Inverse folding.
């Protein structure tokens, strides 16, 4: 298994950040579950893949400022396989997911301004 960690901060309160994650997951056609800690666990749909292992990402959400207007997201990704090729695929998929989250958060900020 290949593992990767990425921190991300978005301009949305934690309640909205959760909805932003759910919207990004729906846009990608992935699945989303909640684990026992209240974190969201997202996973690529195996039917969308061609010759690749699915990526799973655990998303923990917390407030990033005292005013409650920003959220800190911790992304913990995991993908089957090992080696530099798999590590690069995991990195690319996590960056794509993080980019999608940032776009969704920008749209949220624009609509709530």
């Amino acid at each position: 298994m290949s593992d990767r960690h990425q921190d991300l901060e978005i301009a949305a309160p934690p309640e909205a950040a959760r909805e932003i994650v759910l919207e990004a997951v729906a846009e990608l056609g992935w699945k989303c579950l909640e684990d026992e800690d209240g974190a969201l666990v997202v996973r690529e749909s195996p039917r969308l893949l061609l010759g690749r292992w699915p990526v799973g990402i655990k998303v923990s959400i917390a407030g990033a400022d005292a005013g409650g207007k920003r959220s800190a997201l911790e992304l913990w990704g995991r993908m089957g396989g090992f080696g530099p090729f798999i590590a690069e695929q995991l990195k690319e998929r996590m960056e794509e997911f993080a980019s999608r989250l940032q776009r969704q958060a920008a749209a949220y900020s624009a609509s709530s301004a």
In short: The mean pLDDT is 89. The chain has two helices and five strands. Residues 61 and 113 are 22 Å apart (CA to CA).
